[in-house]
Predict the structure.
Amino acid sequence: RRRLMLKHLLQKPAVEQAQRYTWDEIETWGKHHPTEAVHIGMVKVLQKEPAKYKQIVTAKVIKSLTQLQTCDKSHVCSSNPVATFIRSHACPPDKPCPPEIQQDIERLCTWAARIAVDGAFHGLLDQLMQQPHP
């Protein structure tokens, strides 16, 4: 029962983060290749090197779902509302989160991230294929 609740709890944030980080990778590619058309970056990320980029995006999604704090490159940290929300619903209130629940969260976050990243890539690839390009 707890695992089913966790799966339900993780689905929406996993999908949102997968879409966000997939676009981030396309935008990062564009910043490194400013003279190239954006759709070239989309093809590179989504078609030519999907394994590489899926691995990057999946790791970012898992981190966003599990780490209670996020830190920038300058080591300035802030609370991560996504992971905090998940923990607040999965763990008992006013007590440390039991290790078995933490393990379930981490395992199911990995599962949810993989599915969400596959969906994000597939959805963007479908959009890419439907659009005419120069």
